[in-house]
Amino acid sequence: METISETVVAAHGPDDADGGESFATLLGYWARRLGDEVAVTYLDHRAGADGRAVTLSWRELDDRVGTLATRLADFAAPGERAAILARQSADYVVAFLGAIRAGLVAVPLFAPDLPGHAGRLAAVLADCAPRVVLTTAAEIDGVAGFLASAEIERPAVLAVDTPAPVAAGDRSWPRPEPNGLAYLQYTSGSTRTPAGVMLTHRNALTNARQACDCYGIETGTTSTVSWLPLFHDMGLILGIGAPMAAGAASVLMDPLAFLERPSRWLRALTASPGAISAAPNFAYAYSASRVTEAEKSYLELSRVVSLINGSEPVLPETIAKFHDTFAECGLRPEVHRSSYGLAEATVLVSVTEAGKAPRQVTFDRDRLAAGFALPAGPGAAQTTLVSCGFPAGQRIRIADPVTGALAGPGEVGEIQVSGPNVGVGYWGRPGASAGVFGLSPVDPDTGAGWLATGDLGVRYDGELFVTGRLKDLVIVDGRNHYPQDIEQTVETHPAVRPHSAAAFAIERADGEAAVVVLERAKGTEADVAVATAEVRRAVSAAHGLRLHDVVFLAPGQVPRTSSGKISRVLCRRSYVDGSLTARRPG
């Protein structure tokens, strides 16, 4: 068994941070070493319910990436942007690595037919001004049509899966500089126009290797399995970055294939001994509720190494439900790894220890809302939080978001991060970058400042507990309420569809007021007016909070992000502009 630290020495010496490396140079190393072993498998479920496996060996992937990089030299110069507008596929991997090998700044995006996100895509393209757009032959007409309708300078468009003549002879590509930009990772854009986090080769390689060490990704013995979109931070590092760092095989599938039938994800874990995968909290609850007994009979999950739960609050009941559902399939509780991260830090910041089930602590809810993490005593209102573990190779501090003063023991504050995985700013936004990246004091040894994450958390017995997001706090009559607490209370009502509620505050003349938007449970015959009154009473009793409004919507109507998570910010925006109330069910 070979660990990542051993492969680093074997591949490029012990001092890899300044070795002129990139994900593309590591691909070349593994192509020479692993040759015809499978590097990437894409499970294409569009061709049938069971999926058709499309595979590329390390050598095939390297050849295709090299061919694309050579073609790209005719269209763009090193440092210019190459945007990827394609569906999830092995071709997407070729496009991303080909752009990097050519010395371009990759911009991982999505096909223009992703429902509800055309405006975001147009805004991102206008922001990054790509010189070339990479897609596939099947999508090139749709991409060209979208670009023609967008108000941007027209880039060249290449289909990465279309053979093209390439001049014979030695190929040479720009030497990657550690501090040169590798790619732009665009944030969700739910609070503003999407911002492109500038990630260098050092940032990306550092975090990919941190992920390998933390999750146990090893050459030849493990593989990553992911349905997460490759244009999202975790999907990109888990599906491409970490496999390139460790020489591990990657198994990919489309997010829609998971949503249509979550058992497909679990079947892929079963078929991949030593599997490592990740998903948001909602996906674990969704899988537990949707996988049938007949489908469970095909699952063997005892060889899963790590199941990462991140990108939204980890709920204790979700962990319990998932493991209760799949324990009979061999799933071990200790493979569940709660994690915290964000795009500005490439992705991974902290994670729970391997070999242990994530720690859960029940805090006094009122004291937590007031900014202090204290265990709940008898009779106190309770909030149980799941630990996000320990730093994954960087430093974490908790600070007052206004004054910057360090929080005391047990005090809630803003989570701030420092380390070589933290990006260098937002593309074209020096003002916004200054308020987020490189906060004082700068470490005299590393020269690194601190990243303001905008997330609230506390260090308790050395472990990080994420309590919420600064911008999501519901503050009514001078009291803080965490929206996830309100949402959990609301979702106990049988008329409410599980994992569909969003709580947020709106501005009124007399101060902030609380609103809850939710979806009606499928098949329910409950009277909406009666259910609304009962939801109001439950929130008032549990939180001492009067709801200004409760909006029931039809299933699937609550606004979500491109990865399928409920977006409180989009809900607030749609509520304020009236588009949510226009969709109320009759």
From TrEMBL:
A molecular function (GO) term: ligase activity
One of the Pfam families matching this protein, by short name: AMP-dom_DIP2-like
The keyword Ligase belongs to this UniProt entry's keyword annotation: yes
Occurrences of domain AMP-binding enzyme C-terminal (ranges): 472-582
Family assignment from sequence similarity: Belongs to the ATP-dependent AMP-binding enzyme family.
One GO-annotated biological process of the protein: Actinobacterium-type cell wall biogenesis
GO CC term, one of those recorded: plasma membrane
Keywords carried by this UniProt record: Fatty acid metabolism, Ligase, Lipid metabolism
Protein name (record): Fatty-acid--CoA ligase
Segments forming domain AMP-dependent synthetase/ligase: 30-427
